[in-house]
Structure formats: C-alpha cells, structure tokens
Write a structure and sequence with these properties.
Blueprint lengths: L2 H53 L7 E5 L2 E5 L14 H13 L5 H8 L10 H12 L3 E3 L5 E3 L2
Antiparallel strand pairs: 1-2, 3-4
Length: 152
C-alpha cells in the first residue's frame, strides 16, 4: 500500500470518528438542555414550597402549587398534617371509601363508589394514580396484590 493510500484510509477513519463524535456531542447537548429544564422546574417547586411554609397557609385548606405553568392540588404527607381535612375533596372522598370498606379494597370498587365506568379500559388509571399517591404520602397502604387499605 502506498503512502497516499495509507493517508486516504486514515482520512476515512478520522472522518468516521469525527461523525460519531459529532453525533455524541449532539446527544450530550440535548441531555444538558433537559437537565437545565428539570433544574428550573425543581427550583420553582422549591421556591413555592418555601413560600407556602413562610406564609403558613391554613392547614385545613388544600394547597395549590404551580407545575408546568398550571395550578395543581398538593397532597400533603400524613405526618405533616393532623387530619385528612388538609386533603383535597376528592382525595378525602377516596380515603373515606377505603375506610368504609373495612379491609382491602380494589381500585374498581372505589371507582364504582365514585361513579366511574370501569368497563371502559383506562378509566381507572387516574384513580389508581391518586390512590397510589395517597399510599406514597402515608394515608393508605398499598398491598402487593394491588389493593388498598387504610393505614393504622
């Protein structure tokens, strides 16, 4: 192989490497942009939390926070509030249904009590999310079979 052929082959290798590195750099830049957005959102949520604590809002009223530019209800942790009156109304209602059941209750049973048509696929998923949020915040206990009970 002549020197010119070696140079041409090496140039091809370097061009391929440069192309791969440019692609990787674009991926890194995209991830950095996503992290910047996530950081801004977390800072905004943190600032709202600090403001809420500073204002010492009425514990009996559900708090609203801004997420992605829209106002949503905040579900407090059980240890942060004395009773369920700090929960938004629909969450208090779900908690009452689970309490009234007296044992493990399925999402579809809670949905039936709330008047949600369980025959339509996907209708119960938002309800399952809300019940899981109550479990995550210590208000309910989620069993391994997907049912929910009141936390003692």
């Amino acid at each position: 192989m002549s020197s010119l052929e070696k140079i041409a082959a090496r140039r091809v290798e370097l061009d391929q490497l440069a192309e791969a590195l440019a692609k990787r750099l674009a991926e890194v830049d995209a991830e950095r942009e996503e992290l910047a957005v996530a950081e801004r959102v977390l800072r905004r949520l943190y600032e709202q939390e600090v403001e809420a604590v500073a204002e010492e809002a009425d514990a009996g009223a559900p708090q609203r926070v801004q997420v992605a530019g829209r106002s949503v209800l905040k579900v407090p942790h059980r240890s942060d509030v004395p009773d369920a009156s700090a929960l938004p109304g629909d969450y208090r209602r779900m908690l009452g249904i689970v309490k009234a059941a007296g044992g493990p209750v399925m999402v579809k049973d809670v949905g039936a009590e709330l008047g949600i048509d369980a025959s339509v696929p996907g209708r119960l998923e938002p309800l399952r999310g809300k019940l899981s949020k109550l479990a995550d915040r210590g208000w309910l206990h989620k069993l391994s079979n997907g049912t929910f009970t009141i936390r003692a």
